[in-house]
Amino acid sequence: MKSRTIGRTLTDPRKYEPLLAIRNEREYDAAVARLNELVDEVGDKPRDPRYRFIETLSVLIEAYDEKHHKIPDASGVELLKFLMDRHELSQGDLPEVGSQGVVSEILRGKRELNVRQIQALSRRFHLPVAAFFSELQPKREAV
User: Fold this and answer.
1) Quick one: 76-136 is in which CATH superfamily?
2) Does this model's pTM top 0.70?
3) Which residues 6+ apart lie within 8 Å of 131 measured at CB?
């Protein structure tokens, strides 16, 4: 995308709106949809001018998530189930993890998530890799 096109895009208030603070679920859903579109278009190309837009939008979504969608302490598989439910995904919607059969085995506990799958899920859901390794971390004691 040429910088002139980006300039036009960023001066259009309808395109700029997602960079405002997210105030409710409707805005959250719109921001997540926009982020998913951009990630599909840009991928992992940090030199693409839209990459910074993706980073900024991710920060806004994460801030809203932290306040309104607390992710419980859970195993990697429990977290994956939670994310699939939250984003209304089926087993077939996770090609970065593997085939529908592989995803099914992971969800049933027949297989464990491997490092490649965890990295892919981390990128897709904009979560730290450590979130999927929670079962390896010591449990926090209640104070």
Assistant:
1) lambda repressor-like DNA-binding domains (1.10.260.40)
2) no
3) 71, 76, 79, 122
